[in-house]
Design brief:
The structure holds 2 protein chains of 2 kinds.
Chain A lengths: L7 E5 L4 E6 L4 E8 L2 H4 L3 H7 L6 E8 L1 E6 L5 H17 L19 H21 L4 E9 L2 E8 L7 H16 L5 E4 L17
Parallel strand pairs in A: 7-8
Antiparallel strand pairs in A: 1-2, 2-5, 3-4, 4-5, 6-7
Chain B lengths: L2 E5 L7 H11 L2 E6 L13 E3 L5 H14 L4 E4 L2 H14 L6 H8 L1 H10 L7 E5 L4 H4 L7 E5 L9 E3 L2 H15 L2 H4 L7 E6 L4 E10 L2 E10 L12 E4 L5 H18 L4 E10 L2 E8 L12 E2 L10 E2 H9 L13 E6 L6 E7 L1 H5 L4 E6 L6 E2 L10 E7 L2 H14 L1 E4 L1
Parallel strand pairs in B: 1-2, 1-4, 2-3
Antiparallel strand pairs in B: 5-8, 6-7, 6-8, 9-10, 9-12, 11-16, 12-13, 14-15, 16-20, 17-19, 17-21, 18-20
Helix pairs in contact in B: 1-10, 2-3, 3-4
The chains are: A alpha+beta, B alpha+beta.
């Protein structure tokens, strides 16, 4: 596939975070999070994004065909996004995998606070959250936990649902406050415009 | 921390804006919908189900809930929940509109009747039943006229007719629209058709907040695309208005008189007006905020307002409902606008191309596509759902309008 055939859709979450949905998969080995230029070494996509001049990239998260970029600069996303698009196309055209496999944890080493939280949140999602949203044909995927902030992606009936924010804030976030109170917040990185079967579709003016 | 009861029908576009506003105000939020959330059992104080189709029943349910979890304010987000909110407010003793006023605002015929009686300028109007013979009516109606369902929103089923043959065709088409299953569920109002004189002139939308009966104008939008029919799908809203200031004052004064004539006292109003050489005309007043995602075009706040800069319309509405402090209601200084993206044609949507290019255009704040792949897009007058919204900000209204049009040209709707 030529670079021009790769389609990338940018969905800014806020001034600091933007998700990029790519028509081609970038990483099939689960979620990889890069919190520094050093961690990005060996993964051409993350290396390129951290090298974008003036963006002051703080984190890159890659999962499947989704790239989430966290920046600290005030440069607007329409400017940074073009450079991220070039980085994605360049990484897909390269000889090496765009994202290297996650290194195995050091023997005997303990997990970070976020790793511990990740496990507890994942359990909550498996045991309670997903059985609940499944009643409306939905699914909530735990993408990552960063600095005690949980990143989720909604799918099925939740993706594009008119009540997704209620589910997120009054449902998922409330359960996290009750069961994993160390969690500081929840960020939805779902591309809701791509939802093809939302349980509740907004219809009224 | 005060508790807000937010009435969110499951088919509303308004969820994110109101939920975000409640979070920013740090209030205890209870969301009420007509269908249960799957999380209701897990969060019984944050999620409840009310019979939104029956306001009295909903008020009983809300009163039961409030006995255990006191409610400080109630807010509806659309025409129907505005009536439910008024009923709950009256039952619990909260700030809100009189129930009769909210009901009159929702009923286009009752509204026009009250406004005409109070000498607020409204088009000549008459109410007919769907069973009536349009060929008989065609000789009695004024031309040009507008045929519209009594209870539908977003200009669904609104058709202009300039001559008897057009009137008969329009009446029969509206009758078919009223026969749709989702409309029939409205009950008796689905059997009624309003026919009114077409009022030429520029069209405007006033966004306001009633505080103890006094209208505070939050924004006056121009609608630069002529809305002359035959259908009335809206496109661009731009504020501030480019009308002369005396004309703007006349529109605001007309809206104030209309609110007073209906008996509305508290909460948001969205007022559709026209202006021509005879002055302002009240087309419709709704006791709710602007619909769709359009409120994102409005930002408020200054240092002494109690609102952070960038405060939203929803934040203002919630603060007012909860009687929280709110000194100034000044909109940001720049020009701002929104385009409700027109439905290009009927068909099943495969994708929308060019979104990134549209976002990259100068002055464009956001492009939000709300239609989903596989969705059947239905043009007006049968349809009522915009496939998305484009937002722009700039120094002058003309620049904003041009930016919206330019960004829209970048979008390509691909159908299956």
């Amino acid at each position: 596939m030529s670079q021009s055939e790769i389609r990338i859709t940018a969905e800014p979450i806020d001034n600091g975070r933007c998700k990029f949905l790519v028509s081609e998969p970038l990483h099939a080995g689960g979620v990889r999070r890069f919190a520094s230029r050093e961690e990005a070494q060996g993964s051409p996509l993350a290396e390129s994004i951290f090298s974008i001049p003036g963006a002051d990239v703080a984190e890159v998260i890659v999962s499947g065909n989704l790239v989430t970029v966290v920046k600290q600069s005030a440069t607007p996303w329409p400017v940074v996004g073009k450079a991220v698009g070039q980085a994605i196309r360049g990484a897909l055209a390269g000889d090496r995998p765009a994202v290297a496999a996650k290194p195995a944890p050091a023997a005997g080493g303990g997990g970070t606070a976020d790793d511990v939280l990740y496990e507890r949140v994942a359990d909550l999602f498996d045991q309670q959250v997903n059985p609940m949203v499944a009643r409306h044909g939905g699914r909530v995927e735990l993408i990552d936990v960063q600095d005690a902030v949980v990143m989720v992606r909604m799918a099925g009936g939740c993706q594009g649902c008119g009540m997704a924010d209620v589910t997120l804030r009054q449902g998922i976030e409330a359960m996290l406050q009750q069961h994993v109170p160390e969690v500081r917040g929840v960020v939805d990185i779902t591309d809701h415009t791509a939802g093809s079967n939302p349980y509740f579709a907004a219809a009224k003016k | 921390m005060p508790r807000l009861l937010l009435l969110l029908p499951t088919a509303t576009y308004r969820t994110a804006a109101f939920v975000d506003a409640a979070r920013r105000l740090d209030v205890e939020l209870t969301v009420a919908s007509e269908r249960p959330s799957t999380f209701q059992a897990a969060n019984p104080t944050g999620l409840i189900t009310l019979d939104l189709a029956h306001p009295e029943r909903a008020a009983e349910q809300a009163r039961e809930f409030a006995r255990v979890h006191p409610i400080a304010g109630v807010v509806g987000v659309d025409d129907d929940t505005a009536v439910v909110a008024a009923t709950i407010a009256q039952a619990i003793g909260l700030r809100g509109n009189p129930v009769a006023a909210a009901e009159a605002a929702r009923d286009k015929y009752e509204q026009r009747t009250r406004l005409a009686r109070a000498q607020v300028p409204v088009p000549r109007f008459a109410l007919h039943r769907v069973e009536e013979d349009p060929s008989t009516l065609a000789g009695r109606v004024p031309y040009p006229c507008v045929v519209k369902p009594l209870r539908l929103s977003a200009s669904r089923g609104v058709i202009r007719a300039d001559a008897p043959a057009q009137f008969v065709a329009a009446f029969e088409r509206v009758r078919r629209i009223l026969g749709a299953p989702d409309v029939l569920a409205c009950g008796e109002p689905a059997r009624l058709i309003l026919v009114e004189a077409f009022v030429p002139g520029s069209e405007h939308a006033l966004e306001g907040l009633l505080v103890d009966g006094e209208l505070r104008v939050l924004a006056l939008f121009d609608k630069p695309d002529p809305l002359d029919g035959p259908y009335f799908e809206e496109t661009i809203y731009v504020t501030p208005s480019r009308l002369r200031s005396d004309a703007q004052h006349a529109l605001a004064s007309c809206a104030q008189r209309a609110a007073r004539a209906l008996g509305l006292t508290n909460g948001p109003v969205h007022v559709e007006l026209r202006h021509n050489d005879r002055g302002p005309w009240l087309i419709e007043l709704a006791a709710r905020p602007i619909g769709g995602r359009c409120s994102a075009a409005l930002r408020f706040g200054s240092r002494d307002s109690g609102l952070e800069a960038g405060g939203s319309l929803e934040e203002i509405i919630l603060r007012h409902a909860l009687a929280m402090p709110m000194a100034a209601l000044e909109r940001e200084a720049c020009a701002s606008g929104v385009m409700m993206i027109p439905v290009p044609r009927a068909g099943v949507l495969r994708e929308v191309a060019g979104i990134e290019a549209a976002r990259a255009m100068p002055l464009i704040d956001a492009v939000e596509i709300t239609a989903h792949p596989g969705e059947a897009l239905v043009p007006w007058p049968e349809g009522s759902r915009y496939p998305g919204f484009i937002f722009a900000r700039g120094d002058r209204p003309a620049e904003v309008e041009a930016a919206l049009r330019e960004a829209h040209r970048k979008l390509e709707f691909v159908f299956e």
